[in-house]
From TrEMBL:
Protein name listed in UniProt: acid phosphatase
Enzyme nomenclature, EC number: 3.1.3.2
Keyword Cytoplasm: no
Signal peptide range: 1-18
Name of a matching Pfam family: His_Phos_2
SUPFAM superfamilies from the UniProt entry: Phosphoglycerate mutase-like
Origin species: Pristionchus fissidentatus
Amino acid sequence: TLLILGFVGSLALDELLSVNVVIRHADRAATSGWATAESPTVLFRGNGELTDLGIDNAFAQGRDFKQRYVKTGFIDKRFLPSQVYVRSSSVSRCLMSAASFTNALFKETPKDHAVVPPIYTVHVDDDGLLVPLLTCTDGWEETISRYNLTSNVNVKDNSLRAMMMKEWPAACATVHPSLVDAIIAELPNKLINMPANYKACAEGAAKEFMYKYIELLAGAGASFNDLRIKRVAGVLTKTLIDNFNFASTCTGDACNGQPKFRVYYTHDVNVLAVSHIFGVLDQFNGITPAFSSALVFETRRNENGTYVK
């Protein structure tokens, strides 16, 4: 999924200054549980890990970006570290997605080896940029009240259990709520033959259910909470805006010394939070973000000035 955000109407024949990409990791197995008995064999890397389908899809997405930004000459096809910066959550499915995506971008070496940019990361417990902070005990007051929770500890998991009890969709009545992540994650995989009722649930109502939950975690949309959304996406939003401003104001060598193509690999909660902040949450149509969903910000300049698309 590629969303282009328009803040100012653009004109033809303008100059691309920089690109920032916020992207969810590619297809993974469910973080827990399996939809079928054959699932653990097909998804052999284990729960929460990137699948072969995810590797292929991330690579294909990288090829699409290559067409737009490398083959057009915006960034050098040989890969120059001064032009490209890739940052990822240290969760392995994000790191593997980033590697597969960037593996497709650049010209191979004379001996046909892929040129893969370095992927920067920090430990998951220290990553305020790309890992959602969901363990704090404050900022959940309306959630605690809505679901009659008895404590402000572990609200993330307790609210999901409460939602499963109170809001599990009738269209999924024959599917146990604990399978919601598994059936959504495994639905695209053609090597897994899920029962018809699982497929029907996963194709519609389950994705709407998970969207509401992810929206709650993000503090976005109908579950907007200023404190939670700042925790999830505040640092990333400031980083993006700083990048836009730098590209808009730098001149000469100062511009050449900073990457003009930046990629941030993250999680669905972060993608929803950033989408809310930049006013494009409605693009998801109430459905949980697909694997590899991307927000692309292009800083451009034309005769009217600089703008972000």
